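Per reviewer request, we include the raw input and output of the structure prediction for the construct analysed in the revised manuscript.
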Amino acid sequence: MFAPIAGPAADLTFLETFIACSIGGYISATIFYFASNYFMQLSVKRHARRVRKAERKGKTVPVKKKFTKMNRRIIYLKGKVGIYFTCWAFPLFLSIPLGSIIVAKFYKHKRKTFPLIILFLTLDCFLITGGTYFIKDLML
């Protein structure tokens, strides 16, 4: 989200900054969207390994809350605003990797999910890069 700020500092044009940020976002979204199952399974295995290790040492492991306040908010937003807002807001505000994994967890079964993520990444990159260069031009 803040990568376009480096464009004017590096003396890049609007188009160069836009293309660089877009390509970086596309690569990140693609990797994390399509590898989301792997990352979720890895997290479950890692937690199970930690629990077994603690039990071997004789420690009691408190049960981790699965329905935390943040999870509750994410589920509420998913149900309230739908796929379009989710595909736009989660990668933008939670970071592209985390947002792509969450969107994939909710909507991987829908074919339009990944194209929507790419579309909204392009739009966000254009708006943020445009805003950065607009502010730069106002200051000079």
